[in-house]
Amino acid sequence: MTRPVVLALAALVCAGGCPNEHVFQVIDPCSSQTVAVAPVPVTNKSDILIVVDNSASMCEEQANLRNNFFLDGCAIDVNDPPSPADVTDEMLAGCGFVQALYAFDLDFRLGVITTDVGLCDNRTLQAGKAERACEGVEPDWGRRPQRGCLQAPADAERKYLQRGDADLDDKFAAILAGVKTYGSAIERGLDATQAFIDADTPHDECRTDRDDFLRDDAALVVIYLTDEDDCSHPATGAFGDETTTDTCDGFGDTLNQTWGDNATACYANKDQLTPVDDYVAALQQVKEGRVRVAVIAGGEPVADSDPVRYAAADCRIDAAGGPDTMCTAPRGQGGPFVLTSPASDCFGLDPSACCIADAGERYYQLAAGFDASVVRTDSICKDSYQQTMLDIAKLASIADVVSLGEAPASPLLIRVEVESAGTTTQPVRIDDDVGDPEAEGLSGWQYQAPTTIRFYGDAVPGAGQQVRVFFAAASAEECTE
Known about the structure:
This protein is α+β, with helices and mostly antiparallel strands and 481 residues long. The chain folds into two domains: 121 residues, no CATH class; 291 residues, von Willebrand factor, type A domain (Rossmann fold). It has ten helices and 19 strands. The strands form five sheets. A six-stranded antiparallel sheet has the order 4-3-2-18-14-15, with no helix packed on it. A hairpin with a 4-residue loop joins strand 3 and strand 4. The longest helix has 11 residues. It is globular.
C-alpha cells in the first residue's frame, strides 16, 4: 500500500548567526535518516545606529565609547572568528564591541548621528576656544551638518561601517573625531532619530543617508549615549523652534529669543516636550517592529516611584559596581530641577570621582516602550563601557526571526526547539491569530505565513543558542512500505 511521506525540514539556526549559512536538514520519516543537507543565505543582520551626544560635556564619554570599540589582546580574531556556539564569556572578556559582533557572526552596519538637530554644529565657533576643546583648539573645524545626518570623514568610502571593512577601529575613531563636542546644549536625541528615520534633512549630502544605511531584511538597533535628558519638542508652543535662525555659513546664533540657550528649560517644562510615546510608535513602525533599543545615560530609578522617575547620576562606577570614592550629588543642565535634593556641587570633594550627568529619563521611558527582551540600559557613569558594549553586542545579535525557506504543508505541525549548553527546550507557541504578541507582552514563538517563525519576549534566543524548526514541507513526496 502507499502512504504519504512527510519530509521534515529541520531549520538549524545559530542565534548569533552560523558561519556563512543556516543549515536545513531534510529528514525522511520513513527511514528516520538524514538524506540531504542544503545551505541557505544567512539572515541574521542588524543596522546599528549610535546617537551620540555632541554637547560640550561629552569628552570623556565619547572617549570611553571609542576605547571600548576594539580592544587589543582580544581572543576573537575578526578574520577567523569561532562558531558562535563555541563563544564563551571568558573568550569575550578582553574584547571590544565590534569583536563581539564578529564573535556572534552578525552581518552588521554601523552609523553615527548626533543629538543636535540644528543645521550645523560649532554655532559660536567654540571649536577654536580652549575651554570647549577636548584635545586642543580646532579653529578650522568649520560647520558640519547635523539634524539626523550620518557623521563620517569627508574622504570616507561611505558614511557607515560594515562587516568586512578593513581597519574598523581606526574608521570608527575617525567618525568620532568628526563628532566631538561642538553641538547644541539643547540635546534632542529623539528628534534626531526621527529626522534620520524620516529622511527629514535640509542637506543634499544627507538626503540618501537613511536609504543607503537601512536594509529591508535587517533589524534596527538604536544606541543612545548621552549625559543629559532628551529635550525633543514641537516647533510650536512654549519652546518654539530654536533653530529658526540657523546657518551653516560662518558664525550663526541659532538660539532664538523664546528661551535662548537656557537648557534648564528642558527640565522645568517637561510637560511641554513631545510625548515619548510618539517616538516609541514611530520606531515600532520601522522594520516591521524588528527594533532594539540601548540607552547609556545618567540616572537611576527612584525607589517606589509610580510611574518610574529617575534621579540624576552620582558617583562614577568602578569595575566592581561601586562608587570610586565619596562624592556629592552632581549638577548638570538640570540644575535644581533634577530629582536629587539638594542638587549640590560635585566639586566639593574629589571631582574625578563625580559623574556630572543628569537623568536621561525620557530615553529610559523610550526603552520601556519596548519588550524587555530587546532593550539594554546602563549608566554613563561607568569607568569603562566594555561590559556595557558587550551586552549591547549580544542584543544586536539576537536572531528573533527564522526563515523556513519553504511553506509548511501543515502549519499546525510545526515544532520548535532551542538548544543551549546541551539542553533542549520547546518554547511556547503563540496562536497565529494574535496580531501583536509584543504589545500583549507574550513570550514564545509564532508562525507568520508563509515562511517565517518569529520569537517574542523571554523566548527570543540569545547569542550562541541554536534553534531547530521541524515542519512538514508543502512539497512532500510519497514513499511506500
